[in-house]
């Protein structure tokens, strides 16, 4: 079986589908608003940021409301995929030790569940875009490409974290520190242009920075995204993709016994 | 005829976890501070199975016997593909329906009905096959309306009913049962035994772990007795069961 079909569990499509359905079903079982919560939470987060930075601190950025939404919703996808993906393998240990199942199917189904949320989030983003009369340019066709890369990077990192979490339970707390720091280090709440020139070079090493900068350039500035950011994002994605595959290969046999 | 399960000179050892497995960054950091490679200390390993070989052919009904902790369940997990061998190889042909433990493969918050789909898709069947069989499965389990309640609220007897019904109704060519026939009330056990007989007659290969010599004598065509990580006996069922009784006294 090819590496590619192993990575995406293509031989177990129906099982992945079942797990995604189970994930969506269980997450909101018993709550009256159900699925809507997965959109409400990031929207309210975005509203809070808008209040703090636009109304209180009066940040001078045009269309700041759209800017916030364009950044916060994909970030919500990214961070929750990481956090939930990390726990996914360990929390399914009762399944893994009783039926033959490849471990990366759990981070995969988590990532896909969150991807569905992300795609619906983009409907909201487009609602904002039309409402504010922001022009839709030909560069918008690059958005699916960007989302694909963000998904790949999130899924790969989820695989990596899920393996590490089996051996290092501290990872939950480490990630609890890293994710907020990472978020503030990513141009989500402020445009990259506001960053002082001497600090800008550090933003280049942010693995997901390219996604948010390119999104801003496409949606808010109606311009062609810098090729350098796209190349950078692709490079990081490839690196994490390779790392994740390495771990899948290395731990495919003995992870079950170490749970 | 080539075997459906071919176990070729396998050994299996497990990591020994001394009281607290060092599942923290702390211990790695401390080792690094001591200038030791934090991953150089390989944990000791306990050997459970050593140089085991046997072939199981299509249509056989094999019983596996031996003391507690001798590695019977480990063998079943190796055959099912959950564990991998430390050395040697296992080859299998066709879909294996394993029923290894209570509630194996169930998502506790889902209903029994939803779990049938999940469990069957884990074993490797797709939606249409499950839809074909679902009425039969529910009927056999005797759970009635309770099939729509969350599995969390099931008793252990009900879990076995559901688990056995799923594993035994999907027409998998190989069925693996780990001491599951002992749970459940006598009516259901009788029903299971009848079902297993029926599947055996239809040509399903069955591997069963049991501690009951009577059960082995009655049902199996062959018995494998394990002792000290090796195959002590492999042959005719009633002889194997006697060997097991000898071992116990």
Write the SSE topology:
The complex is a heterodimer of chains A (259) and B (249).
Chain A: H1 3-7, H2 13-27, H3 37-56, H4 64-91, H5 93-96, H6 105-131, H7 143-167, H8 171-184, H9 197-203, H10 209-219, H11 227-251, H12 255-258
Helix pairs in contact in A: 2-6, 3-4, 4-6, 4-7, 4-8, 4-10, 6-7, 7-10, 7-11, 10-11
Chain B: E1 5-15, H1 25-33, E2 45-56, E3 61-65, H2 72-80, E4 87-92, E5 96-99, H3 112-123, H4 127-141, H5 156-168, E6 174-178, H6 186-202, E7 205-209, H7 213-219, E8 222-227, E9 230-235, H8 237-248
Parallel strand pairs in B: 3-7, 3-8, 5-6, 6-7
Antiparallel strand pairs in B: 1-2, 1-4, 8-9
Précis, in short:
The complex is a heterodimer of chains A (259) and B (249). Helix content of chain A is 71%, strand content 0%. With 259 residues, chain A is mostly helical.
Note the main attributes of this structure.
heterodimer, A: 259 residues, mainly alpha, 71% helix, globular, B: 249 residues, alpha/beta, 38% helix, 24% strand
Walkthrough of the structure:
The complex is a heterodimer of chains A (259) and B (249). Helix content of chain A is 71%, strand content 0%. By secondary structure, chain A is mostly helical. Chain A has one domain (3-258). In chain A, helix 3 crosses helix 4 (64-91), helix 4 runs parallel beside helix 7 (143-167) and helix 4 runs antiparallel to helix 10. Chain A is globular and about 55 Å long. Chain A starts with a helix and ends with a helix. The mean pLDDT of chain B is 87. In chain B, the strands form two sheets. Chain B has a six-stranded mixed β-sheet with strand order 5-6-7-3-8-9, sandwiched between helices. In chain B, helix 6 (186-202) links the parallel strand 6 and strand 7. Chain B has 249 residues and is α/β, with parallel strands linked by helices. Classes of the chains: A mainly alpha (259), B alpha/beta (249). The A-B interface holds A 12, 14-15, 18-19, 22, 25-26, 29, 94-101, 167-170, 174, 253-254, 256-258 and B 14-15, 23-26, 28, 77, 80-84, 96, 98, 100-101, 103-105, 107, 109-110, 114, 117-119, 121-127.
């Amino acid at each position: 079986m090819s590496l590619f079909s192993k990575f995406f569990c293509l031989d177990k499509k129906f099982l992945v589908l079942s797990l995604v359905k189970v994930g969506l079903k269980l997450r909101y079982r018993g709550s009256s608003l159900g699925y809507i919560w997965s959109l409400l939470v990031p929207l309210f987060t975005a509203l809070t940021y808008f209040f703090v930075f636009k109304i209180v601190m009066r940040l001078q950025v045009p269309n700041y409301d759209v800017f916030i939404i364009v950044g916060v919703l994909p970030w919500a996808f990214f961070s929750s995929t990481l956090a939930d993906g990390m726990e996914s393998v360990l929390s399914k240990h009762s399944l893994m030790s009783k039926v033959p199942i490849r471990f990366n199917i759990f981070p995969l189904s988590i990532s896909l569940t969150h991807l569905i949320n992300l795609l619906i989030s983009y409907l909201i983003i487009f609602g904002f875009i039309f409402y504010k009369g922001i022009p839709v340019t030909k560069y918008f066709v690059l958005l699916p490409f960007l989302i694909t890369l963000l998904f790949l990077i999130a899924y790969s990192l989820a695989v990596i974290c899920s393996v590490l979490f089996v051996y290092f339970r501290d990872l939950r707390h480490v990630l609890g520190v890293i994710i907020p720091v990472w978020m503030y280090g990513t141009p989500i709440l402020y445009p990259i242009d506001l960053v002082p020139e001497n600090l800008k070079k550090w933003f280049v090493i942010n693995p997901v920075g390219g996604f948010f900068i390119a999104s801003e350039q496409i949606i808010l500035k109606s311009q062609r995204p810098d090729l350098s950011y796209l190349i950078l994002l692709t490079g990081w994605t490839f690196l994490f993709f390779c790392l994740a595959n390495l771990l899948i290969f290395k731990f495919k046999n003995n992870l079950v016994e170490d749970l | 005829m080539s075997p459906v399960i071919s176990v070729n000179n396998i050994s299996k050892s497990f990591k020994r976890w001394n009281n607290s497995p060092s599942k923290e960054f702390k211990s790695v950091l401390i080792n690094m501070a001591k200038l030791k490679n934090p991953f150089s200390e390989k944990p000791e390993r306990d050997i459970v199975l050593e140089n085991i070989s046997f072939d199981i052919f299509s249509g056989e009904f094999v019983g596996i016997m031996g003391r507690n902790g001798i590695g019977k369940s480990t063998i079943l997990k190796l055959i099912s593909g959950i564990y991998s061998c430390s050395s040697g190889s296992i080859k299998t042909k066709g879909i294996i329906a394993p029923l290894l433990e209570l509630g194996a493969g169930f998502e506790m918050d889902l209903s029994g009905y939803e779990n049938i789909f999940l469990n069957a898709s884990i074993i490797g069947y797709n939606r249409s096959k499950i839809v074909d069989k679902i009425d039969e499965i529910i009927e056999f389990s005797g759970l009635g309306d309770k099939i729509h309640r969350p599995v969390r609220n099931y008793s252990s007897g009900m879990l076995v009913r559901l688990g056995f019904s799923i594993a035994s109704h999907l027409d998998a060519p190989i069925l693996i049962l780990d001491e599951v026939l002992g749970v459940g009330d006598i009516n259901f056990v009788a029903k299971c035994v009848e079902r297993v007989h029926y599947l055996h007659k239809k040509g399903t290969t069955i591997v069963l772990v049991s501690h009951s010599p009577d059960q082995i004598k009655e049902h199996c065509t062959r018995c494998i007795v394990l002792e000290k990580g090796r195959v002590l006996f492999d042959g005719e069922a009633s002889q194997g069961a006697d060997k097991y009784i000898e071992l116990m006294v």
